[in-house]
Amino acid sequence: MPEGHTIHRYARKHWDDLGGQKIATSSPQGRFSSGAARLDGRTLTAIKAHGKHLFYRWEGGETLHIHLGLFGRFRRHTIPANEADLPPPSDGTRLVMTGEDVTIYLSGPTICRLVDPDTEASVRSRLGPDPLDDDSEIQKLKEFQANLARRSIPIGAALLDQKVTAGIGNVYRAEALFLAGIDPQIPAKDLSSESAVQLWSLSTELLRRGERAGRIITVDPTDVGAKRRSDLKKRERLYVYKRQGEPCRRCGTPISMSDMANRHIWWCSSCQPAGSGA
């Protein structure tokens, strides 16, 4: 499932491609035919992301809510001079959005529906603060700390709870906890104020970097003998994620792995000793 940086990047890129234009919409698959018919020919006025959710706003007050889930995927095509050369959407394409120069195909989303303002507000109210949205940083941090204080589950599990913070997935939780030197097993409510601030700051920094780059890179190049992040090979971009048994890039201790919140989690037992972060 895409993490928050990817969703915010889609919002930015789709606005660059389609924003302020009258959009032709259709549903080749047929499962969104009525919604596509309501949007067809309307102007796209805004795109907002919150965590792993996208909200496309159209003239007339319509809002399109998309959640990609595990299998959702966008495909972008620049419209060629001869439109007959444009690759056709597959039979499984839920939604086609075509602007002046670009067409975007959506297939396999968990959610693709039109919602009213109350429904959008209800979705957002169930989500924790998003490190990448435009809300006050101070307010988001306070909300994050308050959400942690109410949970006895391990901090590694809490970070995947979208009610605690929206947009962090399995890669970012492992990498942020490593960089903050926090034991994934300590109860979320036991995290010290200083560790919570550091964890929020690191998560925000990593997600912003990922949104700009279009990929997750957490490693300091000097830790692998490189000069720039652009020099890093794919296998060098992460500290702990999917590196069980391999040496820690900072201390050499073999990376550990266990299950938490129905997902694998990775950490360094030396850089993140038991109880660290409390």
Description:
- The chain has about 280 residues and is an alpha+beta fold.
- It has 2 domains: about 5-125, MutM-like, N-terminal (N-terminal domain of MutM-like DNA repair proteins, Alpha-Beta Barrel), CATH 3.20.190.10; about 135-265, Helicase, Ruva Protein, domain 3.
- The chain contains 7 helices and 10 strands.
- The strands form 3 sheets. A 4-stranded antiparallel beta sheet has the order 1-6-7-5. Strands 2-3-4-8 form a 4-stranded antiparallel beta sheet, with helices on both faces. Strands 9-10 form a two-stranded antiparallel sheet.
- Helix 6 crosses helix 7 (about 195-215).
State the strand order across the main sheet.
1-6-7-5
Q: In the CATH hierarchy, what is the class of the largest domain?
A: Mainly Alpha
Shape call = globular
Quaternary structure state of the chains depicted = single chain
SSE run: HEHEEEEEEEHHHHHEE
Question: Beta-strand level of the residues, as a percent range?
Answer: 15-25%
Q: What's the domain count?
A: 2
DSSP strand count: 10
Query: What is the arithmetic mean of pLDDT?
Result: 96
Tell me the CATH architecture of the largest domain. Answer: Orthogonal Bundle
Q: What is the SS-derived class? A: alpha+beta
Per DSSP, the total helix count is 7
Provide the gyration radius in Å: 21 Å
Low-confidence stretches: none
Question: How far from one another are the termini?
Answer: 30 Å
